[in-house]
Structures
1.
Amino acid sequence: IAGAAAALAADDPLPSWNDGAAKASILAFVGKVTTAGSPDFVPAGERIATFDNDGTLWSEQPVYFQIAFAVDRLKVLAAVDPAIAGNETVKAVLSGDRAKLAAVGEKGLLEIVAMTHAGMSVADFEGIVRAWLATARHPRFDRPYNELVYQPMLELLAYLRANGFKTFIVSGGGIDFMRPWAPAAYGTPPEQIVGSSGRTKWQLVGDRPSIMKLPEVDFIDDGPGKPVGIERFIGRRPVFAAGNSDGDLEMLQWTTLDTGPRFALIVHHTDAVREWAYDRDSPVGRLDKALDEAAKRGWLVVDMKNDWKVIYPFEK
Amino acid sequence: IAGAAAALAADDPLPSWNDGAAKASILAFVGKVTTAGSPDFVPAGERIATFDNDGTLWSEQPVYFQIAFAVDRLKVLAAVDPAIAGNETVKAVLSGDRAKLAAVGEKGLLEIVAMTHAGMSVADFEGIVRAWLATARHPRFDRPYNELVYQPMLELLAYLRANGFKTFIVSGGGIDFMRPWAPAAYGTPPEQIVGSSGRTKWQLVGDRPSIMKLPEVDFIDDGPGKPVGIERFIGRRPVFAAGNSDGDLEMLQWTTLDTGPRFALIVHHTDAVREWAYDRDSPVGRLDKALDEAAKRGWLVVDMKNDWKVIYPFEK
Ligand SMILES: [Ca+2]
Ligand SMILES: [Ca+2]
């Protein structure tokens, strides 16, 4: 009997999910769309699944990890460049003073993005991101940021791919910030990562070509930008999508408001002990309108505290 | 012996290519990058191949087929809308008068693009393109435009995919114009098609979401825009690329000017009998700088007349 139980566990594609309605509904959906002859069958090529990143596949507290990257990068730059060290916006950001930070505003934010995310080639930027991940540590867990991915979601991604789904990341985060590490973390190749981006420019110096990052925002892959990005990059509607905040509302609508079998999932941050608990009032990852819409539309709301056995891979 | 020859022919992955240096160089390249242990081995996931479309995968004479689509569309619109029928730019385009056409200019062209490629959802536009393909006929061959694809290039696409390459279309043509038919024609899914695009906008009316096409150009995937588009959509450098004009120069440079095994191919239109013959002086698909660069860099220049047994699938 112990052997049989172990064999059953080994067959479980979602071992970090507690048995219950959430897990059952995922298994039932994948079962019906992959059963040939079922009225809900979806051909393998059309099984498109899109996943938000911050708060859906990895943590986003106490601040979005890309902001932690930008702040760390500013410190490096300020240490070697007096002009950056003396910049008022930079001083406000590095002060850690909440009142000063609140005064930075959108113009200041764009200034910071330009300083930290432009002026180099995409390849050089990717090197900077990799070096940061190798040294930076999350303040609460004292681990590299890319270890704070959600084990149950990794299993979900792998389970979908094993069932003929093509999985994409569709994130408000920067596309060039994600591509250096997300392929290894999630098993999605660079061409299946959609994100926000700045303008870039072709440059050829001698026989050395590069794509240079310019200090101008090109595309914000958030809110209504998510279905726009999905249409532009993927060119067809997902049948499965996962998010965690109001920034995913339109992606989940785009995924579900059509004929045929469709599935939307919201990761609800309910675990203040193992992760964080926040929703309607959080400045990071606010989940308000999409939570109401989930109830109205029958989207799955995953209760992290009760639906997940572990949060991170290192807990196993 | 006849049986052995037939078996050999059946094993030939490029049966519409004449034996010769061009075919041999393609086979040699694919052989070395797919041979485990070879110094030139490239892992399957990194075998990215990008193909221009107009003049590389299908014909582009006497005018780019998307222009034929736009002109046909203008006729439909002008027949039902007096404002469009009376528009001076539209009258110039529909007159077929070369002097009037030449005077249309860039502003006029954008006006035509706005009239024919915007003001509807992407899904509705795709329906218009499909309907056009089902009824329009190419003036010389009296066949649907999507039958004028190159049989030898279809074989090359299939051969690369059979050898673990991921094939992408990277075209100056419109992404929304290609996606309705290119997947069936070339075996590349919609998410592996990169092209020029207009701005789009999310719209939700009741429970009906759509992505609306706006009358503003967003991205021109031509010339230096090709490596920019490759970086944005694919996120890694191709090891194999094919084009036919100066609009592909930067894509071929981006593909080849790096370490490791790399392959660039130019389709040279040399067959005035079966297709068209044009290069340095052609207003459509001008091949001048890229032809010089091919000689300098050792890129393969395919001689359509001598390297290809047939041009189109219907000749077989
Ligand atoms: Ca999120
Ligand atoms: Ca071309």
2.
Amino acid sequence: MHDTAVETRRERLRRSTTAEIKEIALRLLVEGGPSALTLRAVARQIGMAPNALYGYFASRDDLVVALRDDQYAALAQAARDGRDVAAAQGVDGRLRAWAHAVREWALENPTGWHLIFDGPTGGHRSAPCPTPPDGDFDMCMPLLEFAEATLPHSQLIAASTAYRWSDFDDALTERVRAALPDLPPEGIALGLRIWARLHGLVAFELDGRLRAPSTVAAAIYDDEITYLLRSAAADEMDNPPEDRSEER
Amino acid sequence: MHDTAVETRRERLRRSTTAEIKEIALRLLVEGGPSALTLRAVARQIGMAPNALYGYFASRDDLVVALRDDQYAALAQAARDGRDVAAAQGVDGRLRAWAHAVREWALENPTGWHLIFDGPTGGHRSAPCPTPPDGDFDMCMPLLEFAEATLPHSQLIAASTAYRWSDFDDALTERVRAALPDLPPEGIALGLRIWARLHGLVAFELDGRLRAPSTVAAAIYDDEITYLLRSAAADEMDNPPEDRSEER
């Protein structure tokens, strides 16, 4: 009993120190960019000997990976929350809510977005969504549900295409086939294409390539989603484009 | 006369040394990534004192910018060449050729692509195409010509959208309005969206997010283009999707 209590207290302390290290590291990144994040700078700010820090993170890369995983989890949660808010709206409404949640999270957490997609140690390396740290592909499910619902009567896939399951990441296809047994492999290709469109616009906006005011970037993003939903011509076309006059 | 000849010879020597420095710098980047490119490493490989190198490039950033501008020029040239090959095919054929030329250049020059779009000193920062070093927007003209030709009868723009010229980069709109007087501001928004789709897929493929064999990445890219052309429903629909059976 006594040993367990001591262990628990140590673990709690370790967890709290780890959280503090990550909080400081993220702030250094946000305020100064990749070059500002060094283990030495973290140690100085936390008032810890640099050597003690190695007991928590063996290298700068390990720390960056931990930050990236946290940011991925936050993005995935935001995307799920967006989908859940629109749970009653059918696949179209859920896709729209998901896409807006992704963009809004990115605008609020640009450093997190860069960490996930082009972080100093390289982004995640799988498709159609970024591979989450724990191999859970929940984040991209709204995309794939949309693909499943719209594929049979959609203009979105060219008829000449023949994809196979082996064309895609094994871990992803295994997860997708369990969750969406009616989705053909074309659905993954479609999910990838949709994700590339939305990801591309968010990345342009974050990188300042959409030099226009952010209301215009929002309008362009919304146009893309609206167009996507129209093209899919799903029965669940239950979300007509909003009137954006008050946004302009 | 004599002075001019001497000057010319000096200039020629300087040009040749500059070219050699850039060639070595690009090779260091290709082989070792951003951290391998240092002025010290370039000086060592070229057999020059580090101080002498500063007479050519005042800093590593200056050298990177010079490399990036070269790579941009090469990408723009490849895109133009692609368009020119399909000059007789109408706007659809030209867009398709342009898009394939962009992807092929990226696959052959991944370091160049990263330099242009997410290089160590940041990518170019304008839209809808990356801003070329000399402010010439020729690279994106096939996109905008396509937008101009298809906009009147296209499903690609949601009717509720009202864009203004002031929504976009001044240098770009000035250039576009001179070259394509009939294009409304919606055309720029559409160009951006198309570029985001294509750029997003190429970036996914280069970053290894499309883990599938490259023939599948090619098929997905081609699906997106085919779909784009169909949605645009242009009169010039003169390029039916090729039979890809021999590629698979």
